[in-house]
Specification:
Two copies of one chain form a homodimer. Chain A is an alpha/beta fold. Chain A has two domains: 167 residues, Rossmann fold (3-Layer(aba) Sandwich), CATH 3.40.50.1970; 182 residues, Dehydroquinate synthase-like - alpha domain (Dehydroquinate synthase-like, alpha domain). Chain A is globular. A seven-stranded mixed beta sheet of chain A has the order 1-2-9-6-5-3-4, sandwiched between helices. A two-stranded antiparallel sheet of chain A has the order 7-8. Chain A has a two-stranded antiparallel ribbon with strand order 10-11. Chain A has 14 helices and eleven strands. Chain A starts with 6 loop residues before the first strand and ends with a helix.
């Protein structure tokens, strides 16, 4: 996948920042030397597995800097205040100060955790996102959202914290376990569903090369999917409007993840079931035809993504949706697809309509 | 103190916000109704003692809103991630959402804790600071700094989070315990020392009416002292330059507080000793005459503020200064007075010079 040319796309935000697609891990050091003249110390935050694969390549370019590598155990449960507190102690132990730079090397958990850490450590130090999973590359590394979970809900404590840059090397996807690929595909297909009907067709048409990780097709998939996210967050950094569409499937998906205590379900599978529930609700509201709902289910199925889930109780799930950050004044705010390639935000769904949608995805 | 007229002063910042000096607790509700049309729910965060005194007066104006009062136990040790986690659970239990408003009703601890909570809850909800102590009114409520402590250092995790407004009612100072008055006086005298020689003289000349809480003199003292802070943070919201001067005495003071585990020492007393240590260091560096150092010590003494402290070890204190957020690349950054009414930032103090300054304030 190293054939891809580096593309730089600027995200319009209060503080604009660039996303480098198709860059190389080794090249980050040169970029940093060129852009910043006051960095001496770098804190790389990563998982052991990711660090084993990529830390050496990354550090090859960082020999001018004093580097510390902080390893965080894998798992969504590490996105916690406890882990944040430990990172703080370790960072101080390594002499981290206001001029230090944090590099988040990993997937969504690392990006969220290290990003939130950078946003509050000494009231904010600089951050570079180096996403190594499909989900992080097409979605979570873009847009500045960082957070940790709380037992009462996912991503409840966090910030909008634009990084200095997002540095994306497609080659890290080559070794990604398929389960992780699914996580990213769920978000990519969601991007297509809410904002890019052509990309939805691309996913329908290119199943074979995508499943075989064809290098050119993957570059195209990551780039096109990232561009949807970049376009949306550039219009609405703080989620006052259109950015909320990116939460399609997530009100349902987060409820599933919380109900299952983040065990036995990946984020992507939760979102996938959530997309299907939202599609059923959209059908009930006259926003989609049943043929369109079937297309959504068929596409998710074809990539091995869950479209139904077993052993959960619809009332409990409904209750879990109350902690959703989008809710206002006790009303549930939901994102529903409007055909293929468009979506809308609504608070016009009653609990009984939501329950009926839940029942369509439970067995 | 109700004679004071309300003054509105705008703070220049990324997001400018007003400071209302001499307003009334009862009047906040009318202000909110006038300024915001989408607030339904308000979370008041306070201490029991403060709430007993002022919550009724505040709520008199807030009858249009759904209100929850969250009580936090008193003490600097409550500025913690643990307390933040509990506040989060309580807030969710009360149906707090992105449209909710947080009112921080209290002193510096409440302002920092409730402010940081508001800054990260669901990635940031609106905040009004209602400072009820002298320290909070002249200093901590102004400028948007919020934080919690970590066992490894004070205010290590936090944010720059401008409130919607600062709402200051001088009448809350009438019942303030003298120990709390001292906390504020230490910061007020610091403001005078770094930026307003006339205000320093005011403190020298008006000792009697200040100690007797003369209402007009106090209004003048709070207003003039707040204006120093407002002027400085308006020039440098993010502490890239001049704002650092406000930390005069705090590198030393925080070291004392941390070393004593925040027990048996108030913040004001720590800062007061810290100001004296900084003055001795300034003398050693040729920035102050010994007569000026004596004036500083005499003024602090005259208000019952500590100028020496017993039973601490200078090496331990020096070590504690390493966690100071201002430090860069392992060098200690210090603020030193330059005569009376000016100050500067320097990294040109060696550990042995700092040790010598410590020894002057230890016995």
């Amino acid at each position: 996948m190293s054939l891809a040319m580096q593309q730089k796309i600027e995200i319009a935000a209060d503080k604009p920042y660039p996303v480098y697609l198709g860059s190389s891990l080794e090249g980050l050091g040169e970029y940093l030397r060129h852009q910043f003249d006051d960095i001496e110390h770098i804190l790389i935050v990563s998982h052991q597995v990711v660090a084993d694969l990529y830390a050496q390549r990354l550090m090859k370019g960082l020999q001018d800097y004093r580097i510390n590598l902080l390893i965080v155990p894998a798992g969504e449960e590490e996105k916690s205040l406890d882990r944040l507190s430990r990172l703080t102690a370790e960072a101080l132990g390594h002499g981290t100060d206001r001029k230090s730079l944090v590099i988040a090397l990993g997937g969504g958990v690392i990006g969220d955790l290290a990003g939130f850490f950078a946003s509050i450590f000494m009231r904010g130090i600089r951050l570079i996102q180096v996403p190594t999973t499909l989900l992080a590359q097409v979605d979570s590394s873009i847009g500045g959202k960082v957070a940790v979970n709380h037992s009462a809900g996912k991503n409840i404590l966090g910030a909008f914290y634009p990084p200095q840059a997002v540095w994306t090397d497609f080659s890290t996807l080559e070794s990604l376990p398929w389960e992780e690929v699914e996580n990213g595909l769920a978000e990519s297909i969601k991007h297509a569903l809410i904002a890019d009907g052509d990309l939805f067709q691309f996913f329908e048409n290119e199943q074979k090369p995508i499943k075989h990780r064809d290098c050119l097709i993957w570059s195209e998939m990551v780039t096109r999917s990232s561009l949807v996210k970049i376009r949306i967050v550039s219009q609405d950094e703080r989620e006052q409007g259109i950015r909320a569409l990116l939460n399609l499937g997530h009100s349902f998906g987060h409820a599933i993840e919380t109900e299952m205590d983040y065990r036995g379900i990946t984020h992507g599978q939760g979102v996938s079931v959530g997309i299907v529930a939202a599609a059923h609700l959209a059908f009930a509201k006259g926003l989609m035809t049943s043929a369109e709902v079937d297309r959504v289910i068929a596409l998710l199925n074809s990539y091995g993504l869950l479209t139904k889930i077993k052993g959960l109780d619809s009332q409990n799930l409904l209750h879990k949706m109350q902690a959703d950050k989008k809710n206002q004044g006790g009303r549930k705010i939901l994102i529903l697809p409007q055909g293929i390639g468009q979506a809308l935000v609504t608070k016009e769904c009653s609990d009984s309509e939501i329950l009926a949608a839940w029942k369509q995805v439970l067995f």
